[in-house]
């Protein structure tokens, strides 16, 4: 699971936000289904080489939003939520990413059609890379 969490210390987003967003993506994609145990704060901090307080902040926000749940004496787990709630969160994350892409394209003077072509090419490239990993 942790290999799927991408943290970039040079990115503008704080590391706790990157952890939070990454966990949300993993849950929304189904890579972390309900009931799955997530690493402890210390384990994840050690693996990502970040301060445990950073991981703790991300986990607290995820627990507060109902994405994770703490079971006293057992650990932290992906919370069971209705499929509709997960779908709404997934749609929201996609809309946010699409908005960032559209804003970047527009700021460069790119047309909507040029944006579609670029997106389709990127999609194919990513799919080809994923297909290559499966072999």
The CATH topology of the largest domain, please? Answer: Arc Repressor Mutant, subunit A
- First-to-last CA distance: 20 Å
Q: How many helices does DSSP assign? A: 5
User: In which order are the strands of the major sheet placed?
Assistant: 1-3-2
**pLDDT under 50 segments (min length 5)?**
none
Radius of gyration: 17 Å
Q: How would a crystallographer describe the biggest sheet?
A: 3 strands, antiparallel
Element pattern in H and E: HEHHEEHH
Amount of helix? 55-70%
* 3D shape: globular
Number of domains: 2
User: What's the architecture of the largest domain in CATH terms?
Assistant: Orthogonal Bundle
- Please state the average pLDDT score: 91
**Which structural class matches the secondary elements?**
mainly alpha
What tags apply to this protein structure?
mainly alpha; Arc Repressor Mutant, subunit A; three-stranded antiparallel β-sheet; globular; 2 domains; 135 residues
Summarize the structure.
Helix content is 62%, strand content 7%.
Q: If you had to describe this structure to a student in words, what would you say it looks like?
A:
The protein is mainly alpha-helical. The protein folds into two domains: 2-78, Winged helix-like DNA-binding domain superfamily/Winged helix DNA-binding domain (Arc Repressor Mutant, subunit A, Orthogonal Bundle), CATH 1.10.10.10; 83-134. The protein has helices spanning 15-29, 41-48, 52-64, 83-107, 112-134, and strands at residues 37-38, 68-71, 75-78. Strands 1-3-2 form a three-stranded antiparallel beta sheet. Strand 2 (68-71) and strand 3 (75-78) form a beta hairpin. Helix 1 (15-29) packs across helix 3 and helix 2 packs across helix 3. The longest helix has 25 residues, at 83-107.
């Amino acid at each position: 699971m942790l290999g799927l969490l991408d943290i970039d210390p040079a990115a503008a987003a704080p590391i706790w936000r990157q952890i939070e967003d990454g966990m949300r993506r993993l849950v929304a994609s189904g890579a972390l289904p309900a009931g799955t145990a997530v690493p402890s704060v210390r384990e994840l901090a050690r693996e990502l080489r970040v301060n445990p307080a950073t991981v703790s902040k991300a986990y607290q926000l995820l627990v507060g939003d109902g994405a994770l749940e703490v079971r006293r004496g057992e650990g932290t787990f992906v919370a069971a939520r209705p499929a509709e709630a997960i779908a709404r969160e997934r749609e929201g994350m996609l809309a946010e990413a699409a908005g960032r892409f559209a804003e970047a394209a527009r700021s460069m003077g790119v047309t909507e059609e040029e944006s579609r072509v670029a997106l389709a090419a990127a999609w194919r490239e990513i799919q080809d890379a994923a297909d290559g990993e499966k072999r």
